[in-house]
Amino acid sequence: MDYHHLMNLNCYIEFCGLTEPETNCLRLYFARCKTEETAEDLIIGDTVIKNTYPIIIDKDLPVLQLDFESYIAYSVTNESFTSWDEYEQFEGKAFRIYTKSRYLDFIKEHTFAALVCVDVYPPFRHYGIVCLNHIINIVSTDTPKITEIYKQQ
User: Is this structure's pTM higher than 0.85?
Assistant: First the structure.
């Protein structure tokens, strides 16, 4: 499986965590989710929203592990503090590649990666992953390696 395959997935994604297994290497874990088949009423304060379908991790599917051999920068943001931005351009659904973004602008402004990558490294890309509770941004010259981690039964 490659990242372009992930870009076409049509499901919710839950961020499970990350680690740096070696210096400046990044490993991220994601679970695919599904909606429950039985509706529930959702109570928020004094408001009742009828017939909602909870989103849960699909335990029948393997966890997705993404490994970047190196990165320029990454960020994890609470999705509650983000908003839609017409400025940004990307391909994909939950897994995205941005051609124009505020995060790319930040990287170009606050690092010298744009200068170094032209002469020394391959071009870098902005990978974005929109999860149920998190927004993950990674800028890297590497394409991530994707591994499916099957759970012990």
Answer: yes
C-alpha pair distances (Å), 153 with each of 17, 82, 147: 22, 37, 18
For residue 149, CA distances in Å to 47, 59, 104 come to: 40, 12, 30
The structural domain count of the chain equals 1
Report the alpha-carbon distance of residue 71 to residue 78 in Å, rounded: 21
Contact 11, 33 (CB under 8 A): yes
82-136 pLDDT tens trace: 988 899 999 999 999 999 999 999 998 888 777 665 666 678 999 999 999 999 9
Contacts of 55 (CB under 8 A, 6+ apart): 12, 33, 34, 35, 36, 132
Q: Contact, 65 vs 148, CB < 8 A?
A: yes
Encoding tokens for residue 46?
A: 């004094």
Question: Phi and psi of 69, rounded to 5°?
Answer: -65, -30
* Rounded (10°) CA dihedral 35, 152, 27, 11: -20
Distance CA 97, CA 27 (A): 18
Which residues form the domain of 30? 3-149
